[in-house]
Queue: 2 jobs
Job 1
Amino acid sequence: RALRAVGTNRDITEHKRREEALQLAALVYQHSSEAMMVSDADNHIIAINPAFTALTGYESADVIGKSPGILRSGRQEPEFYRAMWDSLNATGRWQGELWNRHKDGSIFAETLSINTIRRPDGAVHWYVALFSDITAKKEAENLIWQQANFDSLTLLPNRRMFRDRIEQDLKKS
């Protein structure tokens, strides 16, 4: 026969909610169709998701600890990146389109969104980048522009292009 019983009671509901929220965040990160990359305050890559590998061809071992500049295609001027960093430093975010390079060296267009995650003291903790391939969209836009402005048989500028250039020259003069 037991003479005494000692026990404790603690409500772990909030702990379980946080645990589920972390599991959900991990699932979203791993299964997102958008490529994700996280870099530290010194702009060294610390994590990528499977969509990053599928899009760029780079595995974790290829990029962890390196700068995101490993993807640079060389199509953007240094001023482009300076403006991007100015925006990131001023507002904590940047969004736009740029050209990057796959592991095999081929170039692709992407739409990129970068957000800054700050520590409680305001210092930069992480940069989170989400991007997707828009190469097919850019190629379609270029094809439409070509078809609108050039003769398909001779590849010479058409009447529309001629009028546009004349109007520009008239405005200049």
Job 2
Amino acid sequence: MVSRGRLNQKINTPLTLIHAPSGFGKSTLLNDWKQTCGYPIAWLTLDEHDNNPARFLYSVVTALQTIHSDFGTDLLTYISAATSINPAEAVNHLTKGILELQDFHPRLGIVLDDFHRINHSIIYDTLQVWLEHFPSNLQLVISGHTRPPLSLGHLRAQGMATELDVNDLRFTNTEGVKYLQQYVQEPSLAYDDLEKLVKHTEGWAAGLTLTALALSKQND
């Protein structure tokens, strides 16, 4: 585990997008942020079954119920009664429920992890409407392999959106060396050699792990 303060500090706007291929430490970064941000975080790891508007909303409610067990009664009633999901109506119920939590939780967050599994247009539309009527006490983090097709110009203009990609997530030399040093290696490698390994893997966290495992099997 390497705490990445430079990135944790950037997850501070109402919306944060994090997108990079596997092995760049997205979930590890968010777990570290969750432990240090100072307010409750609901975590939803999405799968292919959530690529359905009603199921997606139900999963969001279930995640938020880990923070407040009574959350989302109105939204669940709407989901069960609706023949199809209307993004504006869904957002109205969702935002109303979150705002009602302000007395209990002045600030809270939700992580939508593995969002690359979602490609349903109504889910995208629902999120887009939500971002235009965003609850003041909520912080939303969307993480996945690819950047979701959301229009964020107005949020960026207001300083309300942050985006972290591959270049941000690459380990710096200092982070990479610190990570490699956690693996016991006798005799230990020189600092310059560790820096070369970080450079060779281009700061890819999974690449550094594979490198460390390979080194542990070498006699020389």
